[in-house]
TrEMBL record:
It holds the Pfam family RRM_1. PROSITE patterns: RRM. InterPro entries: Nucleotide-bd_a/b_plait_sf, RBD_domain_sf, RBM45_RRM2, RBM45_RRM3, RRM_dom, SLIRP/GR-RBP-like. Residues 21-95 form the RRM domain. One of its GO terms (molecular function) is RNA binding. This is RBM45 protein. It comes from the Eukaryota. It comes from Calyptomena viridis. SMART domains: RRM. Keywords: RNA-binding.
């Protein structure tokens, strides 16, 4: 969809760069840009790697960006790299990078089980848990659950999730007692499901009605 849209506007490369080819990863603070390139070059042609550093001390924050030449290479890196890297698609450069980095830390580090399970040390201020917080690590799959306080229309929801390539089916169910919306979405690969969840969780559809999108077990090996 982004590619088709950008061809019409004459800025194909720019849209791909902003939305589909740059990934954001959590890395050991000892990593150099060469280390980062070495770990991720197996997934495709890398345009550049960069490590986020503390502006005052110059030390690595344990976060980095990898930009590939093709969207398919970025998707492969997200799907196949070690889960300790917490790889996701990066926000476009025109958005606040510091806000994105903080949200990324909060969402990923806090989802770790309690205890010393991280393969490397991250910044101490992001390693604290709220007393009543009991989140566990989310299992990634090709299947998504979509919940809404308003009922869904099959054709409209299908069209929305079909914006992400690889949609296999969209099954809309309706609760006659609450009139809320519930649907099961399945993609042909985990990378598409990850992207759809990342982009559409919290999306207002229709305006004022936020969608809740979570992963559902699809029977595959979660380690894959």
């Amino acid at each position: 969809v982004f590619i088709a849209q950008s061809r019409a506007s004459g800025s194909h490369r720019d849209v791909e760069d902003e939305e589909l080819t740059r990934i954001f990863v959590m890395i050991p603070k000892s990593y150099t840009e060469e280390d980062l390139r070495e770990k991720f070059k197996m997934y495709g042609d890398i345009e550049y790697c960069s490590i986020i550093k503390n502006k005052t001390t110059g030390e690595s924050k344990g976060l980095g960006y990898v930009r590939y030449l093709k969207p398919s290479q970025a998707a492969r890196a997200i799907e196949e790299c070690d889960r300790s890297y917490r790889a996701i698609l990066a926000e476009p450069k025109n958005k606040s990078s510091e806000s994105f980095e903080h949200d990324y830390y909060s969402n990923n580090v806090r989802q770790e089980p309690r205890g010393n399970t991280l393969p490397f040390c991250v910044q101490p201020e992001f390693c604290t848990f709220e007393k009543n917080e009991s989140r566990i690590q989310e299992s990634v799959s090709k299947r998504l659950s979509v919940v809404s306080r308003l009922p869904f229309i099959q054709e409209q929801l299908f069209a929305l999730f079909d914006l992400v390539p690889g949609l296999e089916y969209c099954d809309v169910q309706r609760d006659p007692y609450t009139n809320s919306g519930y649907a099961v979405i399945q993609y042909s690969n985990a990378a598409s499901a990850i992207y759809a969840k990342y982009k559409l969780h919290g999306f207002e559809y229709p305006p004022g009605n936020r969608l809740t999108v979570i992963f559902l077990e699809d029977g595959s090996d979660s380690s894959e």
